[in-house]
Amino acid sequence: MSAAKVKANAPHRLIVEGRDDQWSIIELTAKYGWDWENPDPHYPYIADAQGNTLALEALPVALRSYRRVGIVLDADIAPGDRWQSLGDRLSGAGFPLPAQPDPAGTVSEAPDGRRLGVWLMPDNQNPGKLEDFLALLVPQADPCWDWSAESTARASQLGAGFTQPDFIKARIHTWLAWQKEPALPFGTAIRAATFAHNTDAARRFVAWMERLFMR
């Protein structure tokens, strides 16, 4: 499967912070029937901005260039602060934004029909990042998920080098290392059904993508 099947000059664009976001989204939507090998004209080109700051900087330019634009950002600061910084960048762009992000993912339409969508990881309500979203896709009955938290905490106590803000990253990678095929990249782990694609969080995200780009 190749993200390159959607051309960079496609009329729709999704801006993400990194390659893990890009492939997680491709593989998750593929579970819901999105065929990135033979993409519908509505499919967005997924642009890896290589970081939060560059993603935000790319947004105003994209809004002037494409009919529908989405952005997926980590809310690794308070979601209200992230929302405010986004609103400041969009001031005067013509897209009315609600006072708070929509828990189902925000979609705003300009008077000329252009659309803007915003998804704050993990769930538009709580602080977090891609790995917090993926934690919501861990199968509920998984016998090792709770133990991965204890194991990661113990490693931290023993001097492992990760910092507390990256605890969830260390936990997710620890859990992935225990799977039948250890340490798969995130997108591959979604394709392999290591992560569940049918949780409430997964359904909400895909529904936001469909609302923004497909309807």
What this model shows, in words?
The chain is an alpha/beta fold and 215 residues long. It contains eight helices and five strands. It has a five-stranded mixed β-sheet with strand order 2-1-3-5-4, with helices on both faces. The longest helix is centred in the last third of the chain and has 15 residues, at 200-214. The radius of gyration is 17 Å and the shape is globular. The two termini are 24 Å apart. The mean pLDDT is 94.
Write out key terms for the chains shown.
globular; alpha/beta; 215 residues; 5-stranded mixed beta sheet
SSE order, as H and E? EHEHEHEEHHHHH
**Largest sheet geometry:** 5 strands, mixed
Strand order of the largest sheet: 2-1-3-5-4
Shape: globular
Helices, by number, come to 8
Number of strands: 5
Structural class of the secondary elements? Answer: alpha/beta
Question: Unreliable runs, pLDDT <50, ≥5 residues?
Answer: none
Report the β-strand fraction as a percent range.
5-15%
Summarize it:
The protein is an alpha/beta fold.
SSE layout and pairing:
Elements: E1 12-16, H1 19-30, E2 45-48, H2 52-65, E3 68-74, H3 79-90, E4 106-109, E5 115-121, H4 130-135, H5 145-157, H6 167-177, H7 186-191, H8 200-214
Helix pairs in contact: 5-6
